[in-house]
Amino acid sequence: MTERKIPVAILGATGAVGQRMVQLLADHPWFEVVALTGSERTIGRPYGELVRWVLDGAPPPRLAELVVQSSDTPLDVAIALSALPTDVAQRVEPLWAAQVAVCSNASAYRMTPDVPLIIPEVNPDHLELLAQQRRQRGWRGCLVTNPNCSAIGVAMVMRPLHDAFGIERAHIATLQALSGAGYPGVPSLDIIDNIIPNIADGGEELKIEQEPRKLLGTLGAAAIEPAALSISAQVTRVPVIDGHTALLSLGCSRRPAPDEALAVLEGFVPPPVVRNLPSAPRPTIVVHRAGDRPQPRRDRDAGAGMAASVGRVRACPLLDLRLVVLSHNTIRGAAGGAILNAELLAAAGLLA
Ligand code: NAP
Questions:
Q1: Which of 19, 24, 39 has most ligand 1 atoms within 8 Å of CB, for mutation?
Q2: Is pLDDT above 80 for 239?
Q3: 0.70 exceeded by the pTM?
Q4: Triad 281, 287, 288: Cα angle to 5°
Q5: Helices 203-215 and 149-165, interaxial angle, to 10°?
């Protein structure tokens, strides 16, 4: 990379995901945060004065001094990392993408045919859609999205299993952390001593059923051909602060013995273009053989919050294989995932 750092804006920098981006980029080797944006509520005031910091410690001093700017007006940066709410992202992200590379967490454009939905370790080749996106939309920049916070960990673990055994059916039950609902999120009287068996009125389940099919799909001439895989998802919100757990049962075209599946998971190495990105975890997948792991409190920070942890890999009496997946929802599942996508764009020479 060049010695001058690449200028980056964080859109929606005051929210739960935006704060993670601020934290993760405070000392990044390639990127320098030069702008933070918010809503009418926060525009015009120094970030450090107005942000209700929900992470450990305090906002990085240099970034605390930046005055929050409008999310509506594209600024002179190379990359915009978006942590905007979906409805705002729908309106604002194309304005930025006309000029700069937008890496978005929002769900607004994930399933749009010419928008790559990317996990660098899973489907970096899908970035080839950007040539078509730029040509058709006349953008100098581009728009790339990262998946739903549960779909990310699930797809990271599915990738090597699908390549080896051909996943045809999946049942996925999730236990999702509170930080996934943003701040202030779920009222304490709803979630303490409780589990809520619904998120976003069924919308979360739809994302987990659709997004892995695009992620594991193949690059066609004009769009991604989704993987021929049917998924049934059931989601719950649980009283955990960070770390989404997913319980998977998989039916495959070739039934794997658990030891075979473990060997495939332990042997997973991401494509070469991804291996040396600054935020790429090594290993990508942490495999547990102890019977009581992975656990959110103990394992969510694996690979600085960027790895997927997997355990309890066993034969399934209903389908073929069952296992437990854990990933950090605001790091790998959101802020860190968008940053890794931005690193991939930079390494692949795809910035405007
Ligand atoms: P959040 O805590 O509610 O933060 C929302 C951010 O957007 C704040 O910075 C807020 O700024 C800004 N904003 C709100 N209304 C706006 C407007 N009208 N114009 C401009 N900016 C506005 O939400 P979050 O949990 O960080 O989630 C952000 C996005 O990431 C969402 O699309 C979410 O679905 C997605 N996501 C979240 C997670 C997760 O684990 N939390 C995981 C994956 C994806 P002010 O503070 O100034 O109001």
A1: 39
A2: yes
A3: yes
A4: 130
A5: 40
